Amino acid sequence: MLQQTQVSRVIPKFEAFITSFPDERSLAEADLADVVRAWQGLGYNRRAKFLHQAAKMITHDFSGIFPTEGRRILSLPGVGRNTLGAIEAYAFDRPSLFVETNIRTVYIHHFFADDFDVDDQRIIEKLDRTLDRDHVRDFYWALMDYGSWLKSSGVRNIDRSRHYKKQSSLEGSVRQVRGLILRELSGGDSSERSLREAVSADGRFGPALAGLERDGLITISAGLIHLTK
After folding, report:
1. Are 134 and 91 in contact (CB under 8 A)?
2. Which terminus of the chain has a lower count of CB atoms within 10 Å, N or C?
3. What is the pLDDT of residue 32?
4. Are residues 181 and 154 in the same domain?
């Protein structure tokens, strides 16, 4: 939930989500439509689908036990190298190396203040030399807090990262219409005509609808559109 989403928005959503789906099995057994409804307001709804798929995989392929081996964790939908590193650090307190926005902020501030186009590999090399291997989880918690504090104190250096990509504005985007469509369908099935009227459709509607169907978040059948069950 915290990927590309502010903590203040995540906290109430996380608490409600965990209340509805307290473990992998309850999430795996839920309809995807209910998971997407619970995710409403966070955006990037494919994350909800990946989480739902991962819960099914843990329940059915791993006998309900969250995997501890890196290769198996990486096999879960939506998990890449950085997410694996975060899981290893936070869930298992293992020495791991991963980079995200706050970590970039801290290391660019202290080690690459005069550099531009800083590659993550250079940050990884510094991280490898400074990581507290006896208190990994605490170390990364501190990095998160420190990075957040630096940004709130006016440090704006993330554009010095080679891997920085400015998030596109929601207003006027296809992503905005995707969210409006999902919100409308959370209340029930709809015809395309009714859905177009409800979201004040413009030229973004077609690409948004096609993308949601392609991502498996909605289903179109018998002239009706609904959240995928």
Report:
1. no
2. C
3. 95
4. no
Q: How far apart are CA 86 and CA 100, in angstroms?
A: 9
Q: Are residues 15 and 72 in the same domain?
A: yes
- Token pair of 178 as six digits: 């995707």
The residues facing 220 across adjacent strands are: 225
What span, in angstroms and rounded, lies between the C-alpha atoms of 49 and 72?
Answer: 19
Count of structural domains, the chain:
3
User: Tell me, what amino acid is at 45?
Assistant: N
**Predicted confidence band at 91 (pLDDT cuts at 50, 70, 90)?**
very high
Q: What CA dihedral angle connects 94, 95, 101 and 104, to 10 degrees?
A: 170
Read off the pLDDT of residues 162-183 as tens digits, 9 standing for 90 and up.
Answer: 988 776 777 888 989 999 999 9
Rounded average pLDDT over 107-121: 95
pLDDT at 98: 95
- Phi and psi of 166, rounded to 5°? -65, 130
Range of the domain at 219: 174-227
